UniProtKB/TrEMBL annotation:
The gene is recG. Belongs to the helicase family. RecG subfamily. Plays a critical role in recombination and DNA repair. Helps process Holliday junction intermediates to mature products by catalyzing branch migration. Has replication fork regression activity, unwinds stalled or blocked replication forks to make a HJ that can be resolved. Has a DNA unwinding activity characteristic of a DNA helicase with 3'-5' polarity. The keyword Cytoplasm does not apply. Residues 457-614 form the Helicase C-terminal domain. It comes from Vitreoscilla stercoraria. The keyword Transmembrane helix does not apply. It comes from the Bacteria. Residues 274-435 form the Helicase ATP-binding domain. InterPro entries: ATP-dep_DNA_helicase_RecG (IPR004609), DEAD/DEAH_box_helicase_dom (IPR011545), Helicase_ATP-bd (IPR014001), Helicase_C-like (IPR001650), NA-bd_OB-fold (IPR012340), P-loop_NTPase (IPR027417), RecG/Mfd (IPR047112), RecG_dom3_C (IPR045562). This is ATP-dependent DNA helicase RecG. Pfam families: DEAD, Helicase_C, RecG_dom3_C, RecG_wedge. Keywords: ATP-binding, DNA damage, DNA recombination, DNA repair, DNA-binding, Helicase, Hydrolase, Isomerase, Nucleotide-binding. Gene3D superfamilies: Nucleic acid-binding proteins (2.40.50.140), P-loop containing nucleotide triphosphate hydrolases (3.40.50.300).
Length: 679
């Protein structure tokens, strides 16, 4: 049975717009809109027996009603219950209709929390109803998350109707549920929407409640099924197999001043295998900052070029894309392969030229930002897309890329390792290669946490570092509230450091600079004609200057773990012992303390990502924050690992043995979310 639309439920357009704000687009969405908390209208409590701080329903006759004007305008209603106890009800906002409802002599019910007030025990802004004709509810009353203009009774009515109209028969076989020890889905949903009065809040909000376990399991199962199907679909798809002929790759290997690490060799092999398949590669190349992913990307590109395909390399920022452009030019041009450049800031004329040569196929390699995947960029023979720092692209951009080249081989690279839980869930349709070894002769980075009050010591250390012939990054604080303020801070810091280090060249790099100016600054820094580079967090991603061995980060307490790890990875790329100074300003929040501690204790990106996931949850990691749609609503991957493992195994089994169940389950759970789950 198809899922009823909101119109089927009799919800008018006006209300549908309100519901859309709650991400409720059909009857099933309404059913999954679960209560924030519950009110108990199943009984009436004697005023004398009500505990302070507890939410209760009382009933009484209004003894007196009065509007007071001091200390501010308020309505004060005094009631007395059948046992003679009295209570004040206080309203700071009220309507004439409420005054009427609570006129002297009326019998009313009030639901709220009892507090000690100035005049005696009182309820502030209780929920009021006339006692006349009111019946006691036999279930707890759900209170749902809502938006302005949509009252609880209205929303409750919609959800109630949805619960009645949707076919809630179980999608999963009884035997399976029995084996997993999970309850029936209809019973689980009804319990959470209309719990019996015997249950309390703590029980209802405990994630281990069987009803919750069932919803989480269903959600995870839907996700696992869709991931596995996506994987299967891809493996049945068609792509041009790219068979290398060894014309280019050996030349690059010969020219490199280093030998590949064993890990690099292994992943180059894995990618090479994939490229020769008749279905598109979707491989994620994971390797900590500095593990040498770029050269692996270049070798993959050469493989594709040997097979006659075009290659596009995309990076999330112009600075990083520009660096790749330089590297690729340096590596490929000696072999007579031209490398093109396309970014948002590229002039129209140059852009048009690049586009023409991509569509007629003269240009075989292009490096750039997401400008590469605008609709009007057409490739004659795109065979391989390489996406660097993949996690920096939002869900939307990844979808755009997907639509561009369904049949194109894709290599995604990320320095932010994907924790196991995420690898098993959102990234389950990707193949993963891991570079688990850093190039030799790197010295580990030492991290120091220093209070910003000790700036003079830090400056002395900067001077010491420069005297040793090394260079320094000085990262200005992130100011989330205002980009202008952030820019100002960077400019001020630059002036201040120029004065303090007048004998050295001090440069500045920030997000508002023209791409060409940024590139020029980077060039000067790279050539060691500049000793200190003051930068905003634009250098977070992928910048590579091996001679820089000190990084100072101001207000490190404001930054996230992934960001700090990326920043820190800018040093420790050469052979000199490197240091990262995290400057912080007190007082520190608990979150900031936890993050700085992690940075101090760990250098391994995998461990940091794991800690990060525990602190922040997966949504942000996936770049889905901006989409506003929670990817998993009920499940917390860290807590529900066991359920995730079960869902994975059950999904595998169902796909092999019970196509019908797969279909009904997906149909119910993915009605409006398919696009996101499939990313
Ligand atoms: P990331 O994985 O962070 O993108 P890069 O590709 O930028 O790392 O490489 C970091 C640095 O290590 C670069 O200067 C690169 O030339 C160097 N490098 C890469 N592979 C090796 C290797 N096998 N031996 C020595 N240096 C290497
Ligand atoms: Mg990189």
């Amino acid at each position: 049975m198809p899922i009823p639309t909101l119109t089927d439920l009799g919800v008018t357009d006006k209300w549908q717009q309100k519901l859309a704000k709650l991400h409720i687009h059909n009857a099933w969405d309404a059913i999954l809109h679960l209560p924030l908390r519950y009110e108990d209208e199943t009984k009436i409590t004697a005023i004398a027996h009500a505990k302070i701080g507890e939410s209760v329903q009382v009933e009484g006759i209004v003894l007196q009603q009065e509007v007071q004007f001091r200390p501010r305008k308020q309505l004060l209603v005094h009631i007395q219950d059948g046992m003679g106890a009295t209570l004040f009800l206080r309203f700071l906002n009220f309507y004439p209709s409420q005054q009427q409802q609570m006129a002297k002599g009326q019998r009313i019910r009030a639901l709220g929390e009892i507090k000690h007030g100035f005049y005696g025990d009182e309820m502030i802004h209780p929920k009021i109803r006339a006692a006349e004709g009111a019946v006691l509810s036999d279930t707890l009353t759900p209170v749902y998350p809502t938006v302005s203009g949509l009252t609880q009774p209205t929303l409750r009515r919609f959800i109630q109707t949805a619960l009645e109209k949707v076919d809630l028969s179980d999608t999963l076989p009884k035997a399976l549920l029995h084996r997993l020890n999970l309850p029936d889905v209809a019973a689980s949903l009804r319990l959470l929407h209309q719990p019996p009065s015997s249950m309390n809040s703590a029980q209802l909000h405990n994630g281990h409640l069987p009803a919750w376990q069932r919803l989480k399991f269903d959600e995870l199962l839907a996700q696992q099924l869709s991931m596995k199907l996506a994987y299967q679909q891809r493996c049945q798809g068609s792509a041009t197999p790219l068979i290398g002929n060894g014309r280019y790759a050996p030349i690059l290997l010969e020219a490199l001043p280093f030998a590949l690490t064993a890990a690099q060799q292994r992943v180059v092999q894995e990618i090479g295998q994939d490229l020769q398949q008749t279905y598109p590669m979707h491989r994620l190349l994971q390797g900590d900052v500095g593990s040498g992913k770029t050269v692996v990307a270049a070798l993959a590109a050469l493989h594709a070029l040997e097979a006659g395909a075009q290659v596009a390399i995309m990076a999330p920022t112009e600075i990083l894309a520009e660096q790749h452009f330089q590297k690729f030019k340096q590596w490929l041009e000696p072999m007579g392969i031209e490398v093109g450049w396309l970014a948002g800031s590229t002039r129209k004329k140059a852009k048009d030229q690049i586009k023409t040569s991509l569509v007629d196929g003269c240009l075989r390699v292009v490096v750039g930002t997401h400008a590469l995947f605008q609709d009007d960029v057409v490739f004659a023979q795109l065979g391989l897309v390489i996406v660097d720092e993949q996690h920096r692209f939002g869900v939307g951009q990844r979808l755009a890329l997907k639509s561009k080249g369904q049949d194109v081989h894709q290599l995604m690279m990320s320095a932010t390792p994907i924790p196991r839980t995420l690898a098993m869930s959102f990234f389950a349709d990707l193949d993963v290669s891991i570079i688990d070894e850093l190039p030799p002769n790197r010295t580990p980075i030492k991290t120091k946490l220093i209070n910003s009050g000790r700036r003079a010591e830090i400056e002395a250390f900067v001077r010491h570092t420069i005297k040793q012939g090394h260079q320094v990054y000085w990262v200005c604080p992130l100011i989330e509230e205002s980009e202008t303020l952030q820019l100002q801070t960077a400019v001020d810091t630059h002036v201040q450091l120029q004065a303090a280090f007048s004998e050295y060249a001090v440069g500045l790099l920030h997000g508002r600079m023209k791409a060409a100016d940024k590139a020029a600054q980077m060039e000067v820094f790279k050539a060691n004609e500049m000793q200190i580079l003051v930068a905003t967090t634009v250098i977070e991603v992928g910048v590579d200057v091996p001679n820089a061995s000190l990084m100072v980060i101001e207000h490190a307490e404001r930054m996230g773990l992934a960001q700090l790890h990326q920043l820190r990875g800018r040093v420790g790329r050469g052979q000199a012992a490197s240091v990262c100074v995290l400057m912080f300003t007190e007082p520190l929040s608990d979150l900031a303390k936890a993050r700085l501690k992690v940075m101090y204790e760990y250098t391994d990106g995998f461990e940091i990502a794991r800690q990060d996931l525990a602190i922040r949850g997966p949504g942000e990691f996936l770049g889905a924050k901006q989409s506003g749609v929670p990817l998993l609503r009920f499940t917390n991957l860290e807590d529900d690992l066991e359920l995730l493992e079960q869902a994975r195994d059950v999904a595998q089994y169902l796909i092999m043995h019970d196509q019908k169940v797969v279909e009904t389950h997906l149909n119910r759970w993915l009605a409006s979310r398919e696009a996101f789950l499939g990313v």
